[in-house]
């Protein structure tokens, strides 16, 4: 019976893809929840993370150092973007901020093309996870299992930080009602910068972690942005839990779409999104609209 | 003293004559650039109707541009050339754009702000995904070898005929949009932009107005896509890709939101940047990105807004 192993293997592939989507979209949803900005440059942060990882790998040859350096570098870029470019726009319409982040996509993509050229560059997985593992008749790269485990750990840590720490309480207050939080004496300016930088860092981290699976190329940010946005719409804007569940759903939809409906596989995630938006416009875990 | 309206009509006529006569003084390449600017100008103006007047920032306008382009490509390459005339080149693509906008708009206008952005974005990507994987639409290669149509018995293949054709359609589209934004309907749209609750309270069927605005914009975007397919002789799934929507947004913002002429100026700035700057440096995307960011930060009124501020030109 070849069906079952195939099914399991695909489910694991989908889980790995969903895990990466979570790592990416959780930053997007945090930034949206806190700052009310749909950060279209979030895909660029993902791309920058992959290239920052590439650069670190070129110097040190160590994947783990790359996985550490990339989020730090991209987080700093995020802090600069928030302080220097977005902050002056807070008093204007939120759409101006969305538009600004759209301009940043061109800027970042071309900067990377300038530095590294336009071709696809592969990132090799760390030595430990360069092999394949098999369970019975299912085999898959061990790196994918690492990705699943890694993202689960990140999800757990994030949940603990946000639910159990003071910093988390401040972030939750800001996400719920930034004005009220400011009224209670929270320095929302600093929290905004922190959350944006942190979200960007998560985007950068997802880029370098995705590297061994998806490789690095300048337009990778533009292509991953849409699935990440769909995850956020499906899960509910600003909801961490939504981003988690949404990622799992979209990861599976994408993977099984490719296997079962190869002719229309690209449509799958949109069909899922359309269904959810029609049934529940605010997404699975979003606050009701208006 | 001439009425400002009269002045404007004269200005429009002078620009029209200059644009029409352009090929008499310039070579093939500048003329091609001008035609490209005009076609993208229609597309940008149609988005400006949504953004600048109705206050609906759509990130999915490429859907209608692409639908128009594919409709024209299918009709014009169709067997026997039965649809080779104005029907296939203009009417069908515009109708296809309108129909697509009716469906997308029906779902999208129920939400606003960032939700509207995301929904329109996702819808346009659906079109992209479908076109990319569908054999009868040429899958990822799209449709090539799209001929230029014969209109009123005149083939518009090359030279003057095609130029006059593009200029005429652009002028008609501009005039039409001009009439729309000055009409009572346009004022209601602007009122909705200003304050949606108030317009609802006053008793306007706000959703119906928004949907009609969305469909009008989609119709003209379809027309622009059709002209683009005829201009370049091909259409690919990239026409649907979300960055094609973003490009129209860039044009509108750089030119000046809520000013139809600004949209065309923005299209000109974009096309010139893309083609002229790229002959000097490969870094045109960087320059474009920086230009755009600077405009959003320091000149939210775009080129037109900056001009108005400088020389006291009134709306």
Q: Any overview of this molecule?
A:
- The complex is a heterodimer of chains A (290) and B (315).
- Chain A is an all-alpha fold.
- Chain A is 74% helix and 3% strand.
- Chain A is built from 11 helices and 2 strands.
- Chain A has a two-stranded antiparallel ribbon with strand order 1-2.
- In chain A, helix 2 packs across helix 8.
- Chain A is globular.
- In chain B, helix 1 packs antiparallel against helix 6 (159-182).
- Chain B is an all-alpha fold.
- Chain B is globular.
- The mean pLDDT of chain B is 87.
- Classes of the chains: A mainly alpha (290), B mainly alpha (315).
- Chain A binds chain B through residues 32, 36, 38, 85, 88-89, 92, 94-96, 98-100, 102-111, 113-114, 222, 226, 229-230, 232-233, 237, 263-267, 270, 273-274, 277-278, 281, 289, and chain B through 57, 107, 110-111, 113-115, 117-119, 121-123, 125-126, 128-130, 132-133, 242-243, 246, 249-250, 253, 282-286, 288-290, 292-293, 296-297, 300.
List the topology elements:
The complex is a heterodimer of chains A (290) and B (315).
Chain A: H1 3-35, H2 42-60, H3 63-86, H4 94-116, E1 132-135, E2 138-141, H5 142-164, H6 166-176, H7 178-183, H8 188-214, H9 220-235, H10 240-260, H11 268-279
Antiparallel strand pairs in A: 1-2
Chain B: H1 4-25, H2 28-53, H3 62-77, H4 86-108, H5 113-133, E1 143-144, E2 150-151, E3 154-155, H6 159-182, H7 184-194, H8 196-202, H9 206-232, E4 234-235, H10 242-255, H11 260-280, H12 284-298, H13 302-311
Antiparallel strand pairs in B: 1-4, 2-3
Helix pairs in contact in B: 1-6, 2-6, 2-9, 2-10, 2-11, 3-4, 3-5, 3-9, 4-5, 4-9, 6-7, 7-8, 7-9, 10-11, 10-13, 11-12
